[in-house]
Design a protein that fits this description.
four-stranded antiparallel β-sheet, 1 helix, 4 strands
């Protein structure tokens, strides 16, 4: 088993969450399909939650909805780096 590394950092305007692993990466020919609903590489019985093909597309949808983005960089045969960017919330709270 390889560890998963998570780094959270930011500046005055944005926050970045960087998640990386060394689990073998995504093959080059699959990198465009990973954003398609119902595409999966999970083996049957691998996990109760794996294999539905909605994890990455829905994660990117939520990131966009919250004003951010989700980007992946995969190194086939090595691992994957995920970068989630979010804008910082204002410190001021206004009652509406």
């Amino acid at each position: 088993r390889h560890p998963i590394h998570i780094i959270i950092c930011g500046d005055q305007k944005r926050v970045l969450i960087h998640i990386s692993d060394r689990a073998g990466g995504i093959p080059f020919d699959a990198t465009q399909r990973i954003w398609s609903y119902l595409y999966t590489t999970a083996k049957e019985g691998q996990s109760f939650l794996a294999g539905y093909g909605i994890g990455l597309p829905v994660s990117r949808l939520y990131a966009n909805y919250l004003g951010g983005s989700l980007n992946l960089v995969s190194l086939p045969g090595f691992g994957t780096h995920a970068y989630v960017f979010f804008p910082r919330l204002n410190n001021e709270q206004v009652e509406m």
